[in-house]
Each structure stands twice: as structure tokens, then as C-alpha cells.
Amino acid sequence: MIEAMKYTKWITVLFCLLGLAACRQDAPRFRIGVAQCSDDSWRHKMNDEILREAMFYDGVSVEIRSAGDDNLRQAEDVRYFIDRGVDLLIISANEAAPMTPIVEEAYDKGIPVILIDRKILSDKYTAYIGADNNEIGRAVGNYIASRLGGKGNVVELTGLSGSTPAMERHQGFMAAISRFPEIKLIDKADAAGERAPAEVEMDSMLRRNPKIDAVYAHNDRIAPGAYQAAKKVGREKEMVFVGIDALPGKGNGLEMVLDSVLDATFIYPTNGDKVMQLAMNILEKKPFPRETVMNTAVVDRTNAHVMQLQTTHISELDRKIETLNGRISTYLSRVATQQVVLYGSLLILLLVAGLLLVVYKSLRSKNRLNRELSEQKRLLEEQRDQLEEQRDQLIQLSHQLEEATHAKLVFFTNISHDFRTPLTLVADPVEHLLADDTLNEDQRKMLSLIQRNVNILLRLVNQILDFRKYENGKMEFTPVPLDLLASFEGWNESFQEIARKKHIRFSFDSMPDFGRCGEAGAYLFQPAFECFQVYSRERKNNRKVIELDERRTTVVAVYSCQQWYDDFCRAYPKYIRPLL
């Protein structure tokens, strides 16, 4: 189990590493946020160029958000990119003053900031790229002065008045016409950079100014609105219309020049590709210019057709590039899918291999454990057989012992009955003889000795019979006190005659305080087999007892009661039972 957990842990770690490797390929190296101020054809062209150029760099993610000419919304877009932790910000400020604080905040947080087309009222930015709007204003002023022959009335329709392009284009225009005293700017209005407001403002100007020779529109969306207002009142032929952007495509500045709606338009380059190149130079720590100014040129009837051919060809190339990019994206998606399948297959193979290895290890461990269990089972069975054999032997021995014990008891019982009858027959005559007054002293002693020993034998026979009852559970054991001194005196008297005949000097002396061995209660139970149970409450008191040698001729030693008791306990430990 431990090995399985170990292999599972390693497989999990490998799975995580491969997963991280797969995710790492999809994780971008750089994240770029683009905050556009408006949503128009010029911005669309720039956005397409930025995204197209980003495809040439590995690991670059670009996110574009448009504010729709709303300062608060654009500030929220910038805040969004700051919170997302982008690596670089590209900002085209809707208006300079409202956007300056949020751009400065991003710059102060260490995020590189590229300003495109429009600046802020601060130098807290990393780089700027765009056309020189002041120079474009000068070029428009010089063109109109030349077109009007140095005199005439001009009206100006600007973009957002708070944006830096509107301010710079106006300043450049005024600087240019200041050299022509007869060129007058008779009216000016903020058209917000869109067609509909421009048409409304132009209509007001037409009512206020009966003679207008030229209309200066700050972009090619304002110019057609002014043209449409003049056309409504039939005055479009009285004046020339000049715009800025010169974008190709239907409804844009280049087509309007060819359609004679505009007398001229000035190129305002989008250069989204150059913006992306500048951003990558900053992110990759390469040298870059802080200020990049794009050139401009006039597009009028003399070069509009050539410009259209070129832009059409460029548009076709752009479409082909987009098609190729789409195919490349499809191929990359397929490759990514194949990589996922490959990594998934590899992980499955590794997982299967790991599981097979775990199963193999588990089987080996199982077989080893089975062998060990089989061996243990065999040993246990052998031990069981041995125990059963020993049990059978013990049962057999127990039966044999019971039979032997029973036979012995039966034997002693029968022989006790056989002894009891003659002893009873001997006891009665002895009692009659002792009752005879004519007996001398010696005869009476001898008959007393006979009577005493007959009584001892009868007592022993009775005890054997009682022991049979005790073994059968029909009688309880009751110890009887023994007067040890009287017993010794009786034994002494019994052996005096025998000792005298064998010329043995035998004597027995007792101390005055011998009593009952210092009140050491010695209880004696002696059936046919010798069995003593002794209890002593004062075994430490020294009391004299004797012991004869094997020849029984001399006094061998004098013992204390304690010493005699200890020796007896060592000799017959199984017969000792203290009585409480």
C-alpha cells in the first residue's frame, strides 16, 4: 500500500509538470492593452494593423477597448488594464486634460505608456508616435491659400476642442494663413469629429455667412457632413472642401476626392504596425525613440487615382495576409489540439505504466504475503496438532491417574474395613483386662500401651475412611488441635520398653514454658500417607525440639521451634497451608 501511494504521488507530480508545460506554451509573455478614444474607420484601420503586426511576435497578447469619445469610459478602460496588470499600455487620449491623471497614475506604477495620435498635458509617458498635427494644419492652410489665390473666407470645423490634434491643427492652420492677410477665418465650430454634428454646425454657418470660399474639416468624417449641408442649400459649388485622413475605401477621403466631394485630403497615417514595433522594442529592452513623428502628404485629383490603385493593391494584400493569418490560426489551433491529445495520450500511457507497475508490485507483495501466511498457517497447524496430541496424552494420563487414585482409595477403604474389625475385637478385650484390679503396674502399663496404639490405629482407619468422604465432597476438612508436648510424652513412654530391651538410653526433656511450642498452633492431619499442615503464629520464638539420627541411638541436635518449622516447610512445601 505504501509503495502504491509512492508511485501514485510521482505520477501526480509528473502529470502536474506536463500540465504546467502545456499551459506555459499558451501563456503569453507580454500582455498589451490598447485604450482607443473612439470607434471609427481610422481607428479600425490602426487596430487591424496592430493586431496583424502582433502576430509576428511569439507570446504577445493584445486587448483593445474603445471609449466611444467618452472621457469617463476611457478612464475606466485604463483602470481596467492597470488592474489586470498589463505589461504595456497604448493610449489615444480622448481629451488631454481629463485623461492626464489616469495616464500619470499608470506611468507612476511602472507600466510603460505609449501615446498615439493624441498627447496629454504631461510628460509622464514612455513614448509618443503620431503625425505632426501642427504641420498638417500648416499644410492645409498653405493649400487653401494657394487654391483661393491668396484671398477668401474660410470656416473651420474641428474635432473635440479639448483634444491635442484639434488644438494643434488649428494653431498650424492659423500660422499658415497669417501670411495671407486676405485669407480670413470667419467662423469656427466644434463638430466633435463626426459627420452628423458637422452637418448641423455647417448649416448654422451657412445661415450666418453668406459668402464662404473654403471649408477646413479636421477629418474626412466632418467634411462630407459639411458638404451635405451646403448641397442642401445649393451652395456646394461655391466653396472648396478640404479634409484630413485620406483613408482608402468606400465613403472615405480618397474616394470622396475622386467623386469631387473633397477638393483635397491630407494623409494622416495610422501606422499601427509601427506602434506595435515600438511597443515590442520597449518590452524587449531595445533602444527606441521617445518621439516618433509621421509624415503627411496631400491627396488631390492629380494623384488620387494612383493612390487608389496603390491602396487597392495594399488592401488585397491585407486580405490575403488576413486569410493567411486565419489559416495559420487554424493550423495553430490544430497543432494545439494535437499537442493536447499528444500530452493527454502521453499522460495516459504514463498513468497506465505507473498503474501496471503498482499492480506488479502489489502482486509481488501479495504473493510474498501469501507465502508467509501459508508458512505461518503450516506452523500453527503443526502446533495445533502437537497441542491436541499433548491434550490427548494429558486426558489419558488424567484418566489413568483418576483410575489409580480410585483404585488406591478403594484399596485403602477395603483394607481399612479389614483392619477395623480385628482392631475393634482387640480393643474390647484390652478394656476388660484393664478393668481387672489384680493387674500389677507393668501389666497395666503394657495393656495401656496396647490400648493407646489400638486407638491410634482405629483413628487412622477412621481418618482414611473420612478422607474418602472428603475426596468425594461429602465431608469438609476440619483441623484438630494437637497437644505436641503430650504427644511427645506419650511417644516417649511408648518407646521406653523397646529402648530398654535394645539397650538404648533414650530420654525426653521439656522446658517449663514449652507449653504448646510458645502457643505455636501445630495442627496435624496424618492419614495413611504422611501429610502435615502446620500453622504457627509465633514461629520466631525459639522452642526446643529433637531429631534422632538414622541409628536412633543418640541425640543428634537440638532445634528451635522456628528452625524445625522452616525445615519442615522446605521438606514438605506442598503440605503447608496457613490456617487463619
Description:
It is a single chain. With 580 residues, this protein is of the alpha/beta class. It is 57% helix and 13% strand. The chain has helices spanning 2-26, 41-54, 71-84, 96-108, 133-148, 164-177, 195-208, 222-232, 253-258, 272-283, 304-434, 441-471, 484-501, 561-571, and strands at 30-36, 60-66, 88-91, 113-116, 127-131, 151-158, 182-190, 214-217, 240-245, 264-267, 291-294, 298-299, 545-548, 555-559. It has a six-stranded parallel beta sheet, with helices on both faces. Strands 7-6-8-9-10-12 form a six-stranded mixed beta sheet, sandwiched between helices. Strand 6, helix 6 and strand 7 form a beta-alpha-beta unit. The longest helix has 131 residues, at 304-434. Mean pLDDT is 80; it is low at 514-561 and 574-580.
